[in-house]
Amino acid sequence: MNRPPFSKDILKIKDIESLADHLGALLKEEIFVKYKRRGAVVGISGGIDSSVSMALAAKYIGAERVFGVMMPEKDSSPDSESLAEKLAKKFGVPHIVENIRPALEGFKCYERRDEAIKRVFPEFDPLTDKSKIGINKTGLDQKLPPVFHLTIIDKNGNQKSKIIPINEYLQIVAASNFKQRCRMSMVYYYAEKMHYMVIGTANKHEIDQGFFVKYGDGGADFYPQAHLYKTQVYQLAGYLGVPDEIIQRTPTTDTYSAEQTQEEFFYQLPFEMMDPLWYGFENGYSTDEVGEVMGIPAEEVQIIFDNFARKKKTTEYLRANPYYFPVI
Q1: Of 320, 316, 315, 276, nearest to 295 (Cα)?
Q2: pTM to 2 decimals?
Q3: Which residues have CB under 8 Å from 301's CB, separation 6+?
Q4: Is the model's pLDDT at 240 over the cut of 80?
Q5: Which of 17, 36, 85, 10 has its CA nearest to residue 294?
Q6: Whether the predicted pLDDT of 112 surpasses 50
Q7: The Cα angle at residue 310 between residues 297 and 178, in degrees rounded to 5
């Protein structure tokens, strides 16, 4: 196989202008030619991925044909709304705030989640305490599946963590997923009202590793960043002029009441390390070659590769399209 030697900067985009122009041309083709729509709706959160999707759309189809929807709820960081507002104003994109807390309360999202938390920590008080789910980082150097922990933090900052039982984990995740599915419904309301299409915000890692909610943030008409590694998303953000505060912001889930990074919740690795490792995994580089460049033992690289493979396999259901049974 003719391929370049493995290196830490193997994912550096050589001609970022051409890449952006190509993505912009695809946006115009999909929206205006193929589906004959008037524009695009983007759910914006103040995060890097949604910011790049909005910036691409504003640059290539025109800010007046893009509509941004901010959808905060009870557990959202105040920074999310303020940064999303700054983003939309910078690119001149019309936008609106739709607080989805009442809808989530109607679905008993918080109630169902807190019910499961209290089965693990009976002392948990949802009026004053915060919570989050996190994944163990040590699983990366062990031949074991990742283990999720539930953490609660009381009003005085005291923190407790336990390995979360499977039934409670499933209930907390199922209840929390109402958030992403409510947001999907809201962006499609505006898309249908305006005869627009919905631009998804997921990057390559989110899709390939299954870090999305099926029919939630996994519900969109197209994903311009689907082939981009996270560090490439940052490169594109810089080229498009996404505000520095967003580029420098640590990626968070913005789902649980306690602060939590995406690395802590799911990825287990910083993006600067995960990106080249995933590239090596996908493209058949040897663990010896990858380990030498990354400065880690080949045995550890193999364990990380096995972890990647496990995530791909166990999340196949999320990427599967509905199956239409054939007529007999």
Answers
A1: 276
A2: 0.92
A3: 277, 280, 287, 290, 291, 294
A4: yes
A5: 10
A6: yes
A7: 125
